[in-house]
From TrEMBL:
Name recorded for this polypeptide: Response regulatory domain-containing protein
InterPro entries: CheY-like_superfamily (IPR011006), Sig_transdc_resp-reg_receiver (IPR001789), WalR-like (IPR039420)
Record-linked Gene3D superfamilies: 3.40.50.2300
DNA-binding is among the record's keywords: yes
CDD domains attached to this UniProt entry: REC_OmpR
PANTHER family, per the entry: PHOSPHATE REGULON TRANSCRIPTIONAL REGULATORY PROTEIN PHOB, REGULATOR OF RPOS
Residues found modified as 4-aspartylphosphate: 52
GO CC annotation terms, alphabetical: cytosol; protein-DNA complex
Keywords on record: DNA-binding, Phosphoprotein, Two-component regulatory system
GO biological process, one term: regulation of DNA-templated transcription
Origin species: Croceicoccus pelagius
Superkingdom per UniProt: Bacteria
Occurrences of domain Response regulatory (ranges): 3-119
Length: 136
């Protein structure tokens, strides 16, 4: 089980995501904006964060940049969930440190699989398996 923070101002979508992730055994906290997401991350570091790009107060991109510039938060994997589909936005988010990018509308099952894959990669690296070795 992982602790996952979901930041999305679309209440229906956020609840759908919460329900799907809780169904597969995760603990999920939903917040409505990036500012609250950063506050909650300061209280308890999640295993993964799902961010909508377009939110009030602080956008998902502003939140992503703040997370990735903080030494204790920069390693938390982030999936952007957004209706912004153009290639420039996708590349901007990935270059800023997003681990994955999902466009709305999306399948809850697809999102859950992406989260599981992200958590598996995180565990793999944490166990020391992701350390690169020199080949001589």
């Amino acid at each position: 089980m992982a602790y996952i923070l979901v930041a999305d101002d679309d209440e229906i979508l956020a609840e759908m995501v919460r329900h799907r992730l809780e169904t597969v055994g995760h603990e999920v906290l939903v917040v409505e904006d990036g500012e609250e997401a950063l506050d909650r991350v300061g209280q308890r570091l999640p295993d993964a964060i799902l961010l909508d790009w377009m939110m009030p107060i602080r956008s998902g991109m502003e939140t992503l940049l703040a997370l990735k510039s903080h030494p204790t938060r920069c390693h938390v994997p982030v999936i952007m969930m957004t209706s912004r589909r153009n290639q420039f936005d996708v590349l901007t988010a990935l270059r800023a440190g997003a681990s994955d990018y999902v466009t709305k509308p999306f399948s809850p099952e697809d999102l859950a699989l992406r989260v599981e894959s992200l958590l598996d990669r995180k565990r793999f690296v944490a166990e020391g398996n992701g350390v690169r070795q020199r080949v001589h």
